[in-house]
Amino acid sequence: MSDLTKLRIWDDPAIHNALSWYLDVAENRRPAKFRIAATVAAGLDPASESEDALWAELDRLTPLFLARWQAIRAGVRLPPAVDGPSLLELCRELAYRMLGHCNFCPWNCRVDRVAGAKFGACKLASGSRVSSHFHHTGEELFYRGTEGSGTIFFTSCNMRCAFCQNGDISTDKDNGEETDPRTLAAMAWTLRREGCHNINWVGGEVVIHLHAIVGAIALLGRDFTPTRAELARAHRTKADRFWQFHETPGAALFDGAFNAPMLWNSNFFMTLESMKILRILTDVWLPDFKFGPGRCAMTLAKTPRYWEIVTRNIALIEEWGEDYSIRHLVMPNHVECCTYPVLDWIAERVPAAPVNVMAQFHPDNFCDPASAKYRDKYADIARRPTPLELDHSWLRARELGLQFETATFERRHAFNTRSMLQM
Ligand code: SF4
To answer: Whose CA is nearest to atom 4 of ligand 1?
Structure first.
């Protein structure tokens, strides 16, 4: 057992109830979902069937998988992985088939990213690049724990947020190092053995790299051990490589095989097809819920149908009984049009979800008046939120009865928190 489970943050029943599966997997008390998927036999050879047949097989196997997941939650032993193709390989094959007519996200570009002759909105072919991977100590306490969240940071994005605080990563598709599933698996394998509590897939945006990530997870579910060359390749993007981390193989094992919770840290602008694959592999979800239902997603991020897609996907993970927490970043001059509707929707549709109502917005990228990239049309968000805007946001969350205080204020002094909320 690591120190994650000893943290007082689990004393909050809202956090504990919402993230109990994640905690069990992080502590190796339960196998990650990808390990369960490897025990569910596919009734066909994924490589030789049509894509329609593969989707039908996924629909057939998903209820079997969910029943096994629930049984394992209740304490039933994990069966052995099957020798032949399993649900894990089926998910990998489906992600690769999708890449040939890409519909990972609602841009639905339908370009053949394997051929790479035409590009979609994310401008990517089949290659994926990682900017860095490291023990992230800036995530919420239940994710960063005491040893950090094992973060693998991909480049490029399917949204165009003018204020992006990782603009160099999200807009520069050549940032970082080209990678492949084996190198990604080597990164995850190392981070977990170094004690990270989870594998945190993040970007930019991650769904645009679905094929590479599912390929890596499929390897991790099949007794993957990296070669020296793969470890050396992975090491090139390890941002904390000059720190000393003690590798403990036992920290990464359940029942003798690799184990780690998979954390999907995403803008949630994803298709149903991507969601169906991720349902099999994701132990905990972290949607970033930014914009309200008006025009803001278009004017600030050039993203159509944002509200419809993101609310549908969050409602889905709630309906599926998944573990998740939500982030919302308060933006200046967007409290009425974005923060209030986002918080109202959460209160109405997913009131038990832990929410982090974040204060750290700063003008960046095209919204930074000090930058050569600055555009006047973004003047309304070219500043930090005022204390009053933040107070109004938190007050609204409190009036709605949201489970937000623990995730939002865990780094702050309790007195400040209380006084602020007693306005
Ligand atoms: S990931 Fe999204 S933006 Fe990129 S090609 Fe596929 S559908 Fe288009």
So the answer is: 122
Q: Which residue has the tokens 């394992």?
A: 72
- The two structure tokens encoding residue 396: 């609204």
Spatial contact of 330 and 344, defined as CB atoms under 8 Å apart:
no
pLDDT tens, residue by residue, 290-348: 999 999 999 999 999 999 999 999 999 999 999 999 999 999 999 999 999 999 999 99
Q: Which of 96, 101, 102, 210 to mutate to test the pocket of ligand 1 (most atoms within 8 A of CB)?
A: 102
Give how far the C-alpha of residue 148 lies from the chain's centroid of Cα atoms, to the nearest Å.
Answer: 15
pTM over 0.85: yes
Token digits for 127? 């290659």
149 touches 198 (CB < 8 A) = yes
The CA-to-CA distance between both ends of the chain, in Å, stands at: 42
105 lines ligand 1 (CB under 6 A): yes
Q: Residue 306's closest CA among 353, 268, 335?
A: 268
φ/ψ (deg, to 5) at 41: -70, 135
- Rounded to the nearest integer, the mean pLDDT of the chain is 95
For the record, the structure tokens of 365 come out as 């990228």
Position 416 pLDDT exceeds 60: no
Quote the CA–CA distance of 417 and 69 in Å, as a whole number: 39
Ligand 1 in reach of 108 Cβ (< 6 A) = yes
Helix 414-421 / helix 387-399 crossing angle, nearest 10 deg? 80
**Six token digits for residue 156:** 């490029």
Whole-angstrom Cα distance, residue 366 to residue 269?
22
